[in-house]
Design brief:
Number of helices: 6
Order of helices and strands: HEHEEEEEHEHEEEEHH
Structural class: alpha/beta
CATH topology: Rossmann fold
CATH class: Alpha Beta
Strand content: 15-25%
CATH superfamily: Class I glutamine amidotransferase (GATase) domain
Shape: globular
Length: 220
């Protein structure tokens, strides 16, 4: 009986050690919500950020949220509490970067943080997957990582429908419609919950997130 108890104790110890080791090896994903935008914020927090987070967590990834000031982003109903400030981010700690659009307005929209631009540049240069739906490809264009790449957007930023303005930072990139587009490690979509609410075109946040997850797994 004592021998059996001893064996059971050893087995439990092995399981615990394995569980700890596995937890320590969980890959982290950096989620950067676009700040300074209030349009349909509750919709974007519940139908985009929450969906992305849930799918990534179910796939075994830890989601870390970073914003410029580290302060909560609050709608009327929903609230997103960041884990850290963008200035504290070390890109090497993350397997990939995903940037919800947060109902980004028309160009020029809110200023884009130079720290976000730097993070995107480094992540793409290191071959890490970067996903950007809705209006957040603005950030990728600002970072210069769309040059020569196919990408998705609701409307062609270089030949927009009135009253939209031309967005010169997209020069050199290849507009490929509003659906899900992947070119290498860059995954974009022109559709989000806000676009669905405005136009009726189906939001493809789940599809974009799953494509991002597939690329994360491929890079492991």
């Amino acid at each position: 009986m004592e021998r059996l108890s001893f064996i059971v104790a050893i087995l439990l110890s092995i399981v615990m050690i394995s569980a700890i080791a596995e937890a320590q090896n969980v890959s982290q994903v950096l989620l950067i919500p676009r700040e300074g935008v209030s349009s349909n914020l509750d919709l974007m927090l519940s139908k985009q950020v929450a969906v992305m987070t849930e799918l990534l967590q179910k796939a075994g990834f830890k989601v870390v949220v970073a914003t410029v000031d580290g302060q909560p982003i609050e709608g009327v109903i929903y609230k997103l509490k960041p884990d850290l400030k963008l200035s504290e981010v070390k890109v090497d700690d993350y397997a990939g970067v995903i940037i919800p659009c947060m109902a980004t307005g028309l160009f020029p929209g809110p200023p884009i943080s130079p720290i976000v631009v730097s993070i995107v540049k480094q992540a793409v240069a290191e071959g890490k997957p970067v996903a950007a739906p809705g209006g957040s490809p603005h950030i990728l264009a600002e970072a210069g990582v769309l040059k020569g790449k196919r990408y998705a957007f609701m409307d062609d930023p270089l030949n927009p429908s009135p009253p939209n303005q031309k967005v010169p930072t997209f020069e050199g990139a290849i507009y490929s419609g509003s659906g899900l587009v992947q070119d290498g490690n860059i995954i974009t979509s022109g559709r989000c919950p806000n676009i669905e609410a405005r136009t009726g075109l189906p939001d493809n946040t789940p599809e974009l997130t799953q494509a991002f997850i597939a690329e994360l797994r491929r890079e492991k």
